[in-house]
Structure prediction request, 332 residues.
Amino acid sequence: MDNKLRWGIIGCAGIAQGSVIPGLQQSQRNEVIAIASRDEEKAKQTADRLNIPAAYGSYEALLEDPAIDAVYIPLPNHLHREWTIRAAEAGKHVLCEKPLALTEHEAEEMAEACAKAGVKLSEAFMYRYHPRYAQIRDVIASGEIGQVRGIHSAFTFNNAGDKSNVRYRKEWGGGSVYDVGCYPISAARLLLGQEPEAVTAHAFFSPEHGDVDMMASGLIEFPHSVALTFDCGMWAAFRNTLEVLGTDGTIQVPSAYVTSPNGGSNFFVSTKEGRREVQVANVNQYSLQGDEFAAAVLDGKPLPFEPSDAVLNMRVVDAVLASARQRARITL
Prediction:
């Protein structure tokens, strides 16, 4: 396949430089042809280091480049809405970093703007493109672990010493629920194939970190008396796990969202028959994400996850944050 999707990157965030750009460059159907920063020198240095042909000193200039088909937006959360809409108006397809927006309403506006402009919009939950999630769903569907009774997931890390980090700016969409809590919520919705009915959450809001939630725990109620229990945090030891509990067994995913290149993608199924390790292909989930997006743009293939999914995920994120602030159960 000679035709490749040509990407412009809006911003030089760590996730872009360390994961998404290399993933696109290693993929089959994508090429990164430009990067922009509000600091032109930073854009040039990043472009040189990552072998990107063009560098721009403004996001506007990148959007004006007619050679660019699609943009990836790894900007701070409060800028997602503005630059997704501006990219759509410039005729660019958009892969936007999670969380898609700050609220369900913002996500709806973004989805509508992209639909109106006739461009694709996808939320960059890279973990969903890893083949193991289809394998996990297959194990659940097979009945091997019986009926699903619950899901537990944790995504925590400790970055609290970096007080100037954008994650600690409340008005910029900082906090652990936006940053990592959105993953367990998304994963439970994906594995259960249902939308939650109610949310109860508790959070630790840190005055020395802009009063954002540095740790949050939640109970998310799904239909048929199934629940997700989760915790997320930015001032806690690193964890990145998911467990599906069934009546007859469990599925344990030790590296649920961030994988390691040496066999760190495998998961385990435990039943009364014993515990087995499910071998999973060692793949780059960022490359797979890029190739699925390219297939949607270049071939007209449906996106695996439409913008409506991001809107629904934001509805739950909104409820988790409201519940934590109000110390109340929120029905959806």
